[in-house]
Amino acid sequence: MRQALKDSWWKVPLYCAAAGWISYQIKIRLGPFLAMTRLSDGDSVTVALDQTRWMLLSAVLFLAVLLAGGLGFFRRMTRQELFASSTVLVVWNVASGLLTTFLSGSGILVSAALFLAQLEDWRSIFSQLASAAGLSPWLGAAAGWASPWLFVLFGRSSD
């Protein structure tokens, strides 16, 4: 079992990074068509983001990533393997989130945070829901950071 954990620790972080990048690409390419609205006020036209449609797009992408990973990529992994692999990503999420929050003045760090945001886009629904509900941004961040543990629900029982 220990060997299986050594062989699978990287699977959830790699999948989530790829899924985050794909989710980000879908949002920037389809978002203007699906979530932007044109508001006309006489002679002027204003383009605005429809928050409800944007959150719906984010929720659909989150569920697609979760189901594709759980039912497809990770179906042969045990719950223990998924928990260990997900925990690697959760620890990374917390560390990078706190680091970018407390060291936000550095230009290099800002660039790194913007790049990492692309890789973490698949779980952005949590921060959007917290914001829409008027909750603390930390609550949305914590839920997003912990979201890789949801893959454990799709794991098979131990051998």
Properties at a glance:
2 strands, globular, two-stranded antiparallel sheet
The largest sheet has its strands arranged as 1-2
Number of domains: 1
Strand content: 5-15%
Which overall shape is indicated by the principal axes computed on the Cα atoms? Answer: globular
Rg result: 18 Å
Quaternary state reads single chain
Structural class: mainly alpha
Would you list the SSEs in sequence order as H and E? HHEEHHHHH
Helix amount, in percent? Answer: 55-70%
Nearest-integer average pLDDT: 87
Low-confidence stretches: none
Number of helices: 7
Summarize the main sheet: 2 strands, antiparallel
Description:
- The structure is a single chain.
- The chain is globular.
- It has a two-stranded antiparallel ribbon with strand order 1-2.
- It contains seven helices and two strands; from the N terminus they run ααββααααα.
- The mean pLDDT is 87.
- It has 159 residues and is mainly alpha-helical.
